[in-house]
Amino acid sequence: MIETVASMRLPVDETLMINKNRIEPVDATGEKKRISIVTGTHGDELEGQFVCYELQRRLQEGREHLKGIVDIYPAMNPLGIDSITRGIPQFDLDMNRVFPGDEEGPMIEALTKQITDDLAGSDFCVDIHASNIFLKEIPQVRINELTADTLVPLAKQINVDFVWVHASATVLESTLAYSLNSIGVPTLVVEMGVGMRITNDYCYQLVEGILNLMKENGLWDGPVGPVKEPVISSDHAVGFVNANESGIYLPLKNIGDEICAGDILGRVMDPLSGKVVEEAKSPIDGMVFTRREYPVVYSGSLLGRVLGGDM
């Protein structure tokens, strides 16, 4: 059942609406567990669009196996998706920096307050993001260390390759995930793929993970494919590779490749002189989990991340 959970009047007699699709068990009692799937907060992150489609297809095909309520919010920032804009057009605003919102605040804060209120009461939430147009990310869950005890066990169930536990100092309190975790809704932030693209394999992998998360917590008793055991970052170092020179970057390693310290991740070239101005090398042994996709780089541009240790 499609419902409008938040709406605001716009100029020229238009209305901004945030919709969700609620899928309930055949024997709905109103007392079932509830999982919310959220995506489209950034308009240039499209991986979650396919996840929403494929998850709904699987649920509809196996409706008899559904034992809980699934709320799917595919477009938290519909204006951004329509215009392929990361933030909210005309406002120059990152929607994921204004939660939990304020009903007495400006338009967008009032909108995010309505969204937060609708998500409150979920037993679980999965907040799906892609990377930006510059970087490709291996499927991963990112967790604030303050919520690690609660969220890491859930992250192990969702079929990602990597769980990155961040220091609390790097976590922004104005994000949707922080706001929901603060009110007792365990929320997993999934990051995968690349901006403005859909990586089919990653999306299928996450759909299996969501179904497995549901099965492990009593919302689904249908079939689930194989589930990966993720690497947890707390046991491994993370190496960052940044450019020292400006130019055109050509990566030589792929996501998931295992490399050694000193291996060349890619080269920065100067088209004017026809020379390689830098060879970007891994600082540690490990696995490439972030790769630069956009070729134009400047000094300081992130070229890749390496997850240290034996994989």
TrEMBL record:
<protein>
    <recommendedName>
        <fullName>Succinylglutamate desuccinylase/Aspartoacylase catalytic domain-containing protein</fullName>
    </recommendedName>
</protein>
<dbReference type="GO" id="GO:0016788">
    <property type="term" value="F:hydrolase activity, acting on ester bonds"/>
</dbReference>
<keyword id="KW-0479">Metal-binding</keyword>
<dbReference type="InterPro" id="IPR053138">
    <property type="entry name" value="N-alpha-Ac-DABA_deacetylase"/>
</dbReference>
<dbReference type="Pfam" id="PF24827">
    <property type="entry name" value="AstE_AspA_cat"/>
</dbReference>
<feature type="domain" description="Succinylglutamate desuccinylase/Aspartoacylase catalytic">
    <location>
        <begin position="33"/>
        <end position="215"/>
    </location>
</feature>
<dbReference type="GO" id="GO:0046872">
    <property type="term" value="F:metal ion binding"/>
</dbReference>
<keyword id="KW-0862">Zinc</keyword>
<dbReference type="InterPro" id="IPR055438">
    <property type="entry name" value="AstE_AspA_cat"/>
</dbReference>
<keyword id="KW-0378">Hydrolase</keyword>
